[in-house]
Amino acid sequence: PNEAGQPMARAEIFLTSLDFTLEKVSASLRNGSPSVFTMVDRGRLFINPMTLCEGETEIIIERLKEIEKNNYR
Predict the structure, then answer these.
(1) If we measure between CA atoms, which residue out of 69, 72, 18 comes closest to residue 40?
(2) Model-wide pTM > 0.90
(3) What angle do CA 37, 11, 20 make, to 5 degrees?
(4) Secondary structure string (H, E, C) spanning 18-52
(5) CA-CA distances (angstroms) from residue 23 to 6, 10, 53, 54?
(6) pLDDT digits (tens, 9 = 90+) for 16-70
(7) Which strands form 11-13's sheet, in the order they lie side by side?
(8) Which of 13, 23, 24, 34 is most buried, most CB within 10 Å of its CB?
């Protein structure tokens, strides 16, 4: 639930090939362009799917690929 006790939709993002913390992935998404807000909770990375518009899932996937590419330079 959120701060008000209401249920909050969350989609978990599973990452298998990144070699740094989920907090760093979350910060990279938030600080990049476009900014993507995620939440790390109990060692898992989440996003609220209800805030996404059509086509934004693909943008997030591309951002994650960019983070992975920069991680392995």
Answers:
(1) 18
(2) no
(3) 60
(4) CCCCHHHHHHHHHHCCCCCCCEEECCEEEECHHHC
(5) 25, 17, 24, 26
(6) 776 778 999 999 999 998 899 999 998 899 999 988 999 999 999 999 988 888 8
(7) 11-13, 44-47, 39-41
(8) 13
